[in-house]
Design a protein that fits this description.
By secondary structure, the chain is α+β, with helices and mostly antiparallel strands. The chain contains six helices and 19 strands.
């Protein structure tokens, strides 16, 4: 089995946040360092396109070129590449050279441009139901690999040890080939936190699902329904640049309870993950994490 998990040198086929949608202007280019390489993004009236930034002629940065007629024109020799990555024009040639650069499928969602690291999309970003307001949380850098951050919600036992939760039950649900989910029911040990979260009458009923290797969805069903999407990109240091999108109730009471519940479920994680030297010495209580690692190790890279 390949060793993809917690490996700084590989990037599995999945969706990755490239940047905020507002950063890509129409008929403008932007080169980003992502997935261990440089990728150029540009916007036309048809949408956002992403290509390997190195021109397949002599390797110039396509991000220094211009968008002309919906295609990106290299500044060095004016070769032009469409959104499919195929060279469609090369000055001085009666026949266009058979050259192309790698193309990445893109999607705009929740105010971000996402790119798929692979030739063909294998799964979709999650859909969040309900009348909820979208909040993009500030980006953080955690000194751990994205896989460790994403799998954190599957570590059921740490909710008791670190977050002061009293768990009533937990259930593992593996959904191959790309998802592992745990469902938990519990309540804060603190009576004050039970009151503030609304869990003094109704337990916290939540699910944590990993989607691919670098996306996680946390959904709290009761006592207040809200959701969070977590994703992380591996930076040049091999650390995790996080993007967290919160889907919170629009009414004031629900909003306050969901924010407090997020605190209960997430506080102190960074203190641990920033200094972790992850070692998969699993026990039977770590089965969800173990299944997540097995799934990531089976995923294709590109």
């Amino acid at each position: 089995m390949s060793q993809n998990f917690n490996n700084r040198k590989v990037h599995t086929q999945s969706w990755y946040v490239a940047c905020k949608s507002t950063e890509i202007k129409i008929d403008k280019t932007k080169t980003l360092s992502l997935l261990g390489r440089n990728i150029v993004l540009y916007r036309t009236r048809s949408g956002v396109f992403a290509l390997d930034a190195r021109c397949s002629h002599l390797g110039a940065d396509l991000g220094k070129g211009k968008v002309v007629g919906g295609k990106i024109r290299c500044a060095f020799h004016h070769w032009e590449f469409g959104g499919d990555g195929v060279c469609s024009h090369a000055p001085g040639f009666s026949e266009v050279p058979d050259r192309h650069t790698r193309m990445y499928p893109t999607q705009e969602k929740w105010g971000y441009v996402w790119i798929w690291n692979g030739p063909k999309v294998l799964f979709q970003l999650p859909e969040i139901s309900g009348n909820l307001r979208v909040f993009r949380m500030p980006t953080q850098t955690l000194r751990c690999h994205p896989h460790v951050m994403i799998g954190n919600g599957l570590d059921v036992s740490h909710f008791s040890a670190l977050h002061g939760m009293e768990l009533e039950s937990s259930r593992l649900n593996c959904k191959p080939p790309f998802s592992v989910e745990v469902a938990v029911i519990g309540r804060p040990v603190s009576r004050m936190m039970r009151f503030l979260t609304g869990a003094f009458r109704t337990d916290i009923d939540a699910t944590f699902e990993t989607i691919g290797g670098n996306i996680a969805l946390a959904t709290v069903n009761t006592p207040t329904r809200f959701a969070m999407v977590f994703t992380g990109n591996s930076n040049k240091m091999g650390y995790c640049d996080t993007h967290t999108i919160a889907f919170l109730p629009k009414n004031i009471l629900g909003l306050l309870r969901s924010i407090i519940s997020m605190y209960v479920l997430l506080h102190d994680d960074r203190r641990i993950l920033d200094d972790i030297e992850f070692s998969p010495n699993f026990t039977k209580t770590d089965l969800p994490l173990e299944k997540f690692m097995e799934m990531v190790n089976k995923m294709n890279t590109w």
